Predict the structure.
Amino acid sequence: MDFTYSADQSDLAALCRDVFESEYPPEPALAEETHSAKLHAALAQAGILGLAFEESVGGSGGSLFDLGIAFREAGRAPAPTTFAGTVFAGLLVDRLGSAEQRASFLAPLCAGERLATVAFAEPSTDGDPSLLRTAATRAGDGWTLTGVKDFVPDASSADTIVVAAVADTGLAFFLVPAHAPGVSIVRRQTFGHDRQDEITLDGVSVPADAHLAGASLDAYLACRDAMVALQCMEMLGGAERVLEMSAEYVRTRHQFGRPIGSFQAVQHHIADMAIEVAAGAAAAHRALWLVAGGRPARAEVAIAKTWLSRAFVAVTLHAHQVHGGMGYVREAPLHLFSQRAKTLELQLGTRRAHLEAIAGTLW
Amino acid sequence: MDVELSARDLEWREEVRRFLADAVTDELRAELAEPRPAGRGPAEAAFWRKVGERGWMSLTWPQEYGGRNLDALRRLILVDEFEYAGAPMLDMTITSLAPVIIRHGTPANKERWLPGIRSGEIRFALGYSEPDAGTDLAALRTSAVLDGEEWVVNGDKIWNTGAHTQTHEWLAVRTGPDPGHRGISIVIVPLDAPGVTVQPIWTWGDHRTNQVFFDSVRVPRDHLIGEVNRGWDYIVAALDNERGHLGSVGGLRRVVDELIEAARVTVVDGRLLCEDPVARLAIAELHAEVEVARLLSYQVASGGVDGVVETVPATMLKVLVTELRAKIGSVGMSLFGLHGQLAGPRAPLGGLLEHTYRLAPLFRFGGGTNEVMRDIIAQRGHGLPRSGRR
């Protein structure tokens, strides 16, 4: 048993941190943007967008574990949401697509020339595949898509939307150009000021090669486990950064003639944050390591999500308490993490959904 | 990175499980379930004989002292399995005090105490706390004064859990004029020595602890461990040896496993617990948290160097596991409604839940209060300034 990074993995973490910090300085006004073309180009340049994809399709030939290291660093930034959204779309195409689909879709994605997103949730369900209503019907050689997708991250800035729908074969995925006729996109008003969209598909025609032929429920669920494991690494990185910011603040902020970090009540906030983060690091890395090794890890992934979604929120609440007004103003970055913590808790399976998945392994 | 136990670790776990399957008998379970045990019963004595025959009394000792030099992770696996099986815990004389004698003791100390410890004939009770020196242990006042070739001990100790079952006191005494950490030594005092009085104290957790009085108790000069006035270092070293155990979750894993099984067959308000949406998720959460705690414990133990785990990670684990114990006891009892308050064999989980609930405070304030633990995490882990504590 060994929870340490290899030298290569540590180097990768340092490289990712350098890209995020130098290309995307933590200025809250900038961070409110959901996309940064400058950062995205740098991520492509450094091979981070293509980390988990083979070199034959334009990737860097790394592993899912390496990608997890990048997600941890993205969580610290906190990176624009187009990073995770585009990578998740790439993972689905990589795992469910044909050789031609992978090559034509992933090469521009790895090069930073393609922004993509995954459309799964609908008005009828946040994420249960059996409750999807969006219909894919065969029309000649191609398909027609009709339905409503909801809470799609950054659909408006994406050029391609990977749409989950129900076909005669069951769960199916389609590559839909964001500007195809019949696609209408309406921004949702979210508390986090991020970009999540409702997409109406009104008889949208797509060609046969838009259908990801390798899709199956099991293949999708395995891919979703990988996404959730990556998301856990992102939450971990965010929580770690908030802990560091908070410890630094209470070491330097003086009241009553002494650092507020010398008060026991304040120290205990920091200690509780540290415990949440330490346990979360173990849980997130276990989930990531297992999915990266192609191992079944439904329970371990759900356990990690259950822990980190609660822990990240808790850490931000402790942080607000020790920062007081200094962390509450919009010029300070703390609220960016606070809103990201809650948003990530709700995306890719709520805590409740993951607890239910855990319960499903018990009885 | 490798988040799984190695083949060697798994083999070790199997070896421990095979031993426990044989050694934890129904008689032993019945004896340990006695609400107010007078002391070590015959079944427990038989259990320790089997541990001794296996050569496990010196598991954590270096090989040159006849031990197996068990690393921190495999030590934790052992403790986990003992807890899970409901076996008596390995004596801390073996796991944390003997290694201090090996490392810091004089040749005479080693010759005098180690053979008896390995055979189980010598077992130390931990004589640290006093009525006015609890968390602030360095305020202790029990004294030992040299009179010719003997130390004369006067004072009293409290929360002395082993005083009625062990053979000797591992006694922290003041031997020098300096206050605080300096001027403390460790002296071994036989519990049957003239002038020692053991007075029982019964706790809410149904376990017996004691107050022990020392009235001009005389022990030979060479009963002092290591060097005079260096006792604080030995207390810290013993605590370091103990840290790997503080965060073991075998006992909690057992409670939650039994809760999961009980939920299959227990009907509350007309519904099986495992089919009640609220109960399902509550138990799933407890399961998840025990798993995370166990994973962290493995991580902490596997990150240790030379068998001594790092202080801050082990301290975080202690807080996490002890807070979780309180949650499991409380949430678990609530799931059973009015029946949750039952005690004895007809209680949910045969009383295991309510006992977990009653034991929870002990684990939170014992072994270093969680407040002091949090101070340590903040100060040593995150560079915060010292607070009021010395």
Summary: Residues 7-90 of chain B form a domain with the Butyryl-Coa Dehydrogenase, subunit A; domain 1 fold (CATH 1.10.540.10). Chain B touches chain A through 48 residues (CB under 8 Å). The longest helix of chain B spans residues 277-302. Chain B has twelve helices and nine strands.
